[in-house]
């Protein structure tokens, strides 16, 4: 006969056995076919056997966790493959099961899902920043390839958060912070609002147990005090809809503890000042009735000004649709009502998972399948252009919090953009080419700068030009990951192309100085193929283009590469051309004159003109190859250039101006004036009459004196043009002195 103690102990054991059985899941699988249920059962048996003997922190058999994850997936009506992956998601990680074994038993799609989930299991978000970014990138890309991976992962994380109390307290902060920062925003971005709210509340509960408990008690007391008001409102609303002959389902809705806490924290409110604790959801039969229902409610109670929102006509970015209105109920209580159809309700609560839920009810509908697809596709687009994980993380994290503004194209197409987005973000959202070529914009018919922020209802027209290209300064104000990644990718590509062209010119110049004509190393000549292989082995570059880019960026010194080439040619019996070495002027290459690299201003980002001395055509100049900076051009009398030359002379190369520069160059003027009314306007007019563009004006921070220094940045063609500008300014009344300003070094 069993003792009472033993029988008491058998009670939790029996409960564990029930939770660990397939029966715990069966009741939720009625939407699957018999064959699918049998496949899920096979996965359960395999997982049960694989996890045999393993226990959770609570002491329960480990299989209870995969079953709980599968139950959540079944509530979303995910397909059999996803449910099988949910049951098997820890099999590779914890049980030594291999991917080929899963392919053989359950097929490749299930094995791929489990493999994707296994990679996610390894992620640790409290590691150093670059590892965190890399982990985040892997997770988002797995999600972008198959959204079921993240759905199962969110189900897994939800169950882990529900049972976090059984884990050691040392893990609470890390796991809760990770859930709040990473997983809850992803759930929200994909429209899984029920999961989003639960993850937030569970994280809050374990991050701030005392605050959570205090708020929970306060909410319980408030619920008791306002119970009569809420019952009265519900009764009156139900009666109003019966009298209007509108069939509805009314559900009470309470703010989550975390949303109350966040509102108190952000707006510095006490609990008593948070008025919209309660609300109602009203589910109606069709879209037209949603608007009729608003009319019924507004006849009953006074609407709160500015609190009506139409998310049906303009849905949120994650697909959410409802009408929202806040009414002033009995005793001045603010109560929010949300009107939606059954289909909208499914999407509002389950987001991308609604594809399976809605398909189960309406097999012919694919409307919900598009949910989240645009954002997921943008992840793949950004990944193709961004190989650096930290940069990818930087692009995406803003998009996880999509407080949206809604704007219109000139053809009245609605576009949702993140709050704070600019004209440039809008241009890239339309198409990459529109973004790259944008030069100006009109908002509601008026010309505005490209950095202007978008506001709800704006009609945006972007003006493009075929010769335009992205400005690096745009990175300072764009808000969307797509725009940022497209701009960076374009600038990187252009910089590499320009650096390669510069490297080509510099190597040609260095080879000529060594008596080697560049044509003797033509790549299309089969005999030169071996020579280039030896050169690349010496430099450690993968390709000739890579070597030329390194030369253009200053990572390799062209003269050293040229000397090595001479040595290699000597090994094959080829000798330098002495006449070529001694010749003063070279005409065979259009870019080389008197042994110097010729600059005309078209070189792009690979050549920078030093801001310390601001050289212009006509100045004597020298070129400094900064490590990884490309070629920096200084005036030959620049103090900074002289210091660099003493320290790093082998990095200097001969440069010269072209006879016909293709653009203007910026320099600084220091103008000393007698302070008086209109003096700035007169100086500006003098600069304009001399055809000098003003790029900036600096009047300093000191209070104006009788004589004041004004510093102008002006764009001029050359020294002759600059002399004309100086004469024009000097003749201006009130100007005491004008000179070209240079850094003291």
Major beta sheet summary: 6 strands, mixed
Figure out the total of helices: 29
CATH topology of the largest domain: Hypothetical protein af1432
- CATH architectural type of the largest domain: Orthogonal Bundle
Number of strands: 22
Radius of gyration: 35 Å
Name of the CATH superfamily of the largest domain: Hypothetical protein af1432
The span between the termini is 98 Å
Average pLDDT confidence is 78
How much of the residues is beta strand, in percent?
Answer: 15-25%
> Any low-confidence stretches, pLDDT <50, length ≥5?
1-11, 363-369, 584-594
Describe this structure in words.
This protein has about 750 residues and is an alpha+beta fold. The protein folds into four domains: about 15-190, Hypothetical protein af1432 (Orthogonal Bundle), CATH 1.10.3210.10; about 210-370, Beta Polymerase, domain 2 (2-Layer Sandwich); about 490-655, no CATH class; about 665-740, ACT domain (Alpha-Beta Plaits). The strands form six sheets. Strands 1, 2, 3, 4, 5 and 6 form a six-stranded mixed sheet that branches. It has a four-stranded mixed sheet with strand order 14-16-15-17. A hairpin with a 3-residue loop joins strand 15 and strand 16.
């Amino acid at each position: 006969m069993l003792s009472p103690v033993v029988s008491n102990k058998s009670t939790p054991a029996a409960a564990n056995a029930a939770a660990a059985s397939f029966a715990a899941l069966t009741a939720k699988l009625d939407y699957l076919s018999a064959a699918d249920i049998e496949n899920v059962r096979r996965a359960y048996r395999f997982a049960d056997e694989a996890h045999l003997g393993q226990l959770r922190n609570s002491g329960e058999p480990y299989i209870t966790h995969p079953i709980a994850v599968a139950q959540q997936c079944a509530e979303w009506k995910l397909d059999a493959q996803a449910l099988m992956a949910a049951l098997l998601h820890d099999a590779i990680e914890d049980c030594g099961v291999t991917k080929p074994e899963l392919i053989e038993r359950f097929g490749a799609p299930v094995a791929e899902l489990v493999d994707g989930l296994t990679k996610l299991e390894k992620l640790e978000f409290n590691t150093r920043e670059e590892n965190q970014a890399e982990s985040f990138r892997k997770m988002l890309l797995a999600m972008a390839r198959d959204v079921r991976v993240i759905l199962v992962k969110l189900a897994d994380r939800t169950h882990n958060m529900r049972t976090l109390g059984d884990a050691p307290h040392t893990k609470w902060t890390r796991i809760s912070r990770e859930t709040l920062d990473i997983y809850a925003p992803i759930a929200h971005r994909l429209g899984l609002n029920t999961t989003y709210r639960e993850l937030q509340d569970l994280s809050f509960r374990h991050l701030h147990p005392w605050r959570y408990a205090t708020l929970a008690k306060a909410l319980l007391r408030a619920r008791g005090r306002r119970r009569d008001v809420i019952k009265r409102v519900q009764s009156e609303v139900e009666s109003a809809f019966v009298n209007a002959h509108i069939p509805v389902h009314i559900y009470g809705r309470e703010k989550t503890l975390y949303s109350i806490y966040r509102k108190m924290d952000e707006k510095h409110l006490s609990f008593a000042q948070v008025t919209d604790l309660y609300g109602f959801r009203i589910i109606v039969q069709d879209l037209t009735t949603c608007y009729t229902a608003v009319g019924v409610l507004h006849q009953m109670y006074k609407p709160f000004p500015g609190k009506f929102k139409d998310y049906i006509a303009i849905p949120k970015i994650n697909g959410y649709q409802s009408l929202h209105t806040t009414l002033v109920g009995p005793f001045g209580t603010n109560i929010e009502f949300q009107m939606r159809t059954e289909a909208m309700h499914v999407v509002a609560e389950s987001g991308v998972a609604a594809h399976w839920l809605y398909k189960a009810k309406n097999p012919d509908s694919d409307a919900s399948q598009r949910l989240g697809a645009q954002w997921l596709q943008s992840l793949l687009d950004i990944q193709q252009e961004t190989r650096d994980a930290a940069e990818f993380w930087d692009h995406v994290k803003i998009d996880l919090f999509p407080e949206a503004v809604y704007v219109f194209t000139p053809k009245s197409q609605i576009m949702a953009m993140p709050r704070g987005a600019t004209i440039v973000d809008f241009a890239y959202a339309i198409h990459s080419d529109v973004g790259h070529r944008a030069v100006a914009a009109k908002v509601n018919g008026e010309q505005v700068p490209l950095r202007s922020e978008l506001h709800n209802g704006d009609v945006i027209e972007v003006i493009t030009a075929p010769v335009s290209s992205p400005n690096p300064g745009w990175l300072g104000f764009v808000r969307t990951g797509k725009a940022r990644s497209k701009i960076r990718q374009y600038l990187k590509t252009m910089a590499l192309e320009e650096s390669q062209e510069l490297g080509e010119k510099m190597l040609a110049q260095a080879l000529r100085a060594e008596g080697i004509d560049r044509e003797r190393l033509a790549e299309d000549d089969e005999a030169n193929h071996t020579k280039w292989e030896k050169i690349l082995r010496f430099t450690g570059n993968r390709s000739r283009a890579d070597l030329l880019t390194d030369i253009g960026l200053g990572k390799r010194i062209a003269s050293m590469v040229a000397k090595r080439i001479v040595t290699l040619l000597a090994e094959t019996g080829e000798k330098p051309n002495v006449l070529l070495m001694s010749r003063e002027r070279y005409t065979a290459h259009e870019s080389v004159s008197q042994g110097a690299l010729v600059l005309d201003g078209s070189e792009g980002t690979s050549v920078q003109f030093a801001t310390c001395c601001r050289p212009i055509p006509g100045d004597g100049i020298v070129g400094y190859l900064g490590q990884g900076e490309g070629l920096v051009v200084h005036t030959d009398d620049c103090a900074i250039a002289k210091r660099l030359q003493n320290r790093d002379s082998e990095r200097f190369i001969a440069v010269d101006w072209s006879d016909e520069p293709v653009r203007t160059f910026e320099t600084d003027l220091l103008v000393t004036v007698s302070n008086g009314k209109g003096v700035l306007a007169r100086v500006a007019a003098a600069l304009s009459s001399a055809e000098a563009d003003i790029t900036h004006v600096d009047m300093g921070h000191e209070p104006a004196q009788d004589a004041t220094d004004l510093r102008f940045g002006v764009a001029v063609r050359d020294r002759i043009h600059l002399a004309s500008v100086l004469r024009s300014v000097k003749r201006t009344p009130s100007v005491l002195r004008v000179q070209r300003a240079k850094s003291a070094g």
